[in-house]
Design goal:
The protein has eight helices and seven strands, in the order E-H-E-H-E-H-E-H-E-H-E-H-H-H-E. It has 250 residues and is of the alpha/beta class. It has one domain: NAD(P)-binding Rossmann-like Domain (Rossmann fold). It has a seven-stranded parallel β-sheet, with helices on both faces. It is globular, with a radius of gyration of 17 Å.
Amino acid sequence: MRGLKGKRVVITGGASGIGAATAARFLEEGSLVAVLDRDPAACEKIRAQQPGIAGTFLADVADHGQVQRAFAAIVRDLGGLDVVINNAGISIRHKFLDITPEEWGRVLAVNLTGVFYVAQTAARYMMEHDGGVILNTASTNGIVGYPYYSDYNATKAGVIELTRSMALELAPKVRVNAVAPGYVLTPMQRAEYSDEMLEAVNQKLPLRRHAQPEEVAALFAFLASDDAAYVNGQVYVIDGAETAGGLASR
């Protein structure tokens, strides 16, 4: 991609799954990559797997103070900030009637409030300096209904509208877009689905398989690059045509 070499990139939730694949892709593009994650063991693992990473920073995105301190350290160590990929998220598979207030609060705190904390912190820096790109991880769950994920779905719908609103307010200095994956074969997905459930999903998808994290990472790389310089305020679905035919709720 054009324009990614030397860019200073921060990826939240970057120590595993889509985040780790995205870190690897930006390293291939010649970017300076910092990972922000709340899991010390996962941070240690990605440092071993990707020795070219500029640094890993521990923070819970749902904690405003931790986000502020982490970004101050990142800007100091990287010398600035050009791209932020707001990827940290959690999900709990359960029925709507079984969601506890504590579970509801935690999912919203990480998936929506955390996205806001990170995006606002990054945007304030970018608006005061040379601009940049903010990419938020949404989901097809924020576009169509899915059973057993009401809290998660609500947060992803919120991320989509937050993205559009940010794009209007921060242009022309900062571009903001969202990526909305469908089913991706990540550790989080494997933890919630049995092999039989995964295969059942594959059979309803037009491409007959889950996405690989690297395929989502490629979309992030494009949207952050100079090749996407006129792309702003959009939500890009990457789901193998799952939602094209209304199959998601089957």
